[in-house]
Amino acid sequence: MRSILKLLLSYHGWMYEAHGKMSHTTKVWLALVKIFAGRKPMLYSYQACLPRLPVPTIHDTMQRYLESVRPLLSDLQFQRMAALARDFEHSLGPRLQWYLKLKSWWASNYVSDWWEEYVYLRGRGPIMVNSNYYAMDFLYVTPTPIPAARAGNAVYAILLYRRLLSQEQIKPLMVPGTLIPLCTAQWDRVFNTTRLPGEGQDCIQHVSDSKHIAVLHAGRFYRLRLYHSGRLLRPRELQAQFQHILDDPTPPVPGEEHLAALTAGDREPWARARRTYFGSGKNQQSLEAVERAAFFVTLDTTEQGLTGPDPGRALDRYAKALLHGQCHDRWFDKSFTLIIFQNGKLGVNAEHSWADAPIVGHLFEYMLATDAFQLGYDVNGHCKGEMDPDIPPPQKLQWEIPEECQQVIQGSLRVAQALADDIDFHTFPFKQFGKGLIKKCHTSPDAFIQIAIQLAHYRDKGKFCLTYEASMTRLFREGRTETVRSCSIESCNFVRAMMDPAQNPQQRLALFRVATEKHQALYRRAMTGAGIDRHLFCLYVVSKYLGVDSPFLKEVLAEPWGLSTSQTPVQQIELFDLKNHPDYISCGGGFGPVDDNGYGVSYIIIGEDLLTFHVSCKISSPQTDAHRFGAHIRSALLDLLALFSLGPK
Prior knowledge:
This protein is of the alpha+beta class. The protein has two domains: 127-423, 2-Layer Sandwich (Chloramphenicol Acetyltransferase), CATH 3.30.559.70; 431-528 and 560-643, Chloramphenicol acetyltransferase-like domain (Chloramphenicol Acetyltransferase), CATH 3.30.559.10. The protein has helices spanning 2-9, 24-36, 58-69, 75-90, 92-106, 112-121, 147-166, 235-247, 267-277, 281-291, 311-323, 357-375, 403-421, 435-440, 445-461, 489-499, 505-527, 533-546, 551-558, 626-642, and strands at 133-136, 193-196, 203-206, 212-217, 220-225, 227-228, 231-232, 296-299, 336-340, 346-350, 395-396, 423-430, 467-472, 481-485, 563-568, 589-591, 599-606, 610-618. The chain is globular and about 70 Å long. It starts with a helix and ends in a 7-residue tail after the last helix.
C-alpha cells in the first residue's frame, strides 16, 4: 500500500489543471489516493510514502535560468551569460550532474542536508537579523495586560502542542483543499533543540526530552521546571512561577546581563568563548540548562504593539523588538524564543537552520488559538484554575564570567547593535481589500501580490531586480524550500505597460493576465521539483567537493537578491472564528533584508479582507527606504485592482 501510494503521489498533473476543471485522470487519481491514504493517519504516517525530490536535467535548468535573467540583462550581458551556460551544459555540467544523480538515489533528499549545512550552519556572520525571523501576536487584541498571566497560558498551550507532537496526534499537513500530504520531517526538532556554535561550522543539538524551560528577565537567567509530582504545571501555577521571576530583586552577576549577545554576534568569537569559558563548572551547568531547555522565554521589559500616539511607527518598533530586541535579551540559538512584553503582548523569534517558517507558524497558530479560545483568563486578567502552593520557585542560574569573557561579550554586542541599528522596518495592515476581492478577478492572490510588488519595486528604484519568493518542496520527502524567480519577462512587460501612459487599460489587463499565469506556472514548477536554484546550488557544492571551478556557477551564486519575498500561510484557519472574532488572528511575521541594497518583504493573507506586510531594508543603503517602498506597495495593489473596475466601495 505504501509503494502504491508513493507511486500515486509522484503524479503532479492535478496542479497544472485550470481551477474548477478537473480531468477524468485526476478524478480517478484522487479516488485512489483517498483509498490508499488510510482513515486516521498520524503526523508521520505518510513519510515513507512521499516520493524523492527529482533532479532536473541540466538542459532544462539552463533554459529556465536564462529565461529568468533575460529581463535583467542587456543584450551583450545576456549573450555572455548564455555562452557561459552553454559551455557549462556541454562540458563540466554532465559530470557534476552524474554525481548529483548518484546522491539522489541513496539520499532521502539530495538538497536538504547540504542546504542546512552550507546555507545555515557554515555561515559565520550573525544569525540575528540575517537568518532568524519572527512571528507577531494578534494585531488589535491583547487577551490580558498581565505579562506573567500571558506567559502562563502561552507556555501551557505550547506544552500541550508538544504533547500532541510527541504522541504524533497532530494531523498530517496537506496541500490546502486536497488530500495530498506534505512532508512533516521538520517537526522532529521543534522542541529541545539548539544551534551550537562551532569553529568553522555550527551544529544542531537535539535532545529527546526536556522537563524545563530557560527564562531570561532583566539580564538574569532562570531554569523553570515544567513538572511537579509527575504532572505538567497548570497555567495558574506557571503564572506564579513567572511572577516570581518578575518580582525577584536579585541583580545579574558581572557579565550575565549581556551574555546572550554572544548568540547575536559573529559565530567564531562565540564558538571560541564557549570552548574556553563554558566547558566546566557553574558556567557549563548553566549553559547546559539553557541549551537543553524545551525552549527559551524572554520576559521583556518593554511594551509593544499598537501603543502610543503613532500606531504605525509602533508596529515598526514591535517588529524590530521581535527581530533583534536589545541584542542581548534573546537566546538566538534556541529553536525558538517566546517573547512576552510588559503589557501582555507576545511574539516569537525563531532560528532558521532546523526548519522553515511554516513549522513555527503552525505551533504559533495553535498557541494563540488555545490561549484565547480554550484557556482564557478570569475577570482580573489572571490565568484560570487552581494552583499548588508547594511548587518550588524557579532556579536562578549561576555564572562566573571572567573579565576576558566579558570583553568578548561586549565585542559581540557591538557587532549586533551596529547590525540592529541599521535595520529599517515598516509593518502595516492593508485593509482596502483582500483575498475575497482578488478572487473575483479570477487570479491567484499570491500572484496578484507578487506582481504588485514588482510594480512597486520598479516605481521605487526605476529598475527590475532578481527576486526571490520562497516556495515549499514538501510534496517530497524531507523537502524544504525552492526559489520562485518572480521577476519574469511577462511581469516586466506588464510593469512597463503600467508605466507607459500610452497603454490603455485593456492592454494592461491582458499583460497582467499573462504575467500572473506565468507566475503560477513558475510556482508550480518550484513545488514539483523543477525549480532552478536548488539544482544550481547542489551542482556548485559537487564542484567544490571535486575541486573544480565553474565560472558559470560562481557567477550565478554570487548574484544578489535585490528583493526577497515570502508569504506566511495561515495553516489552521479552523482554529479561528474570523466571522465573530475577526481581530483574533496573527498578523504574520517577517525577516531582515537579504541584500545590503535590497528589500525583505513578508506578507500574510488574513481572511477575505485583510493583508499585512512586513518590509525591511538597511538604513545605510541610499537606495532603500522601507516606508517609501511600503507606500509603493499600497498604491500598486490599488492600481492593479483598478484594472478590473472592482475598487473598494
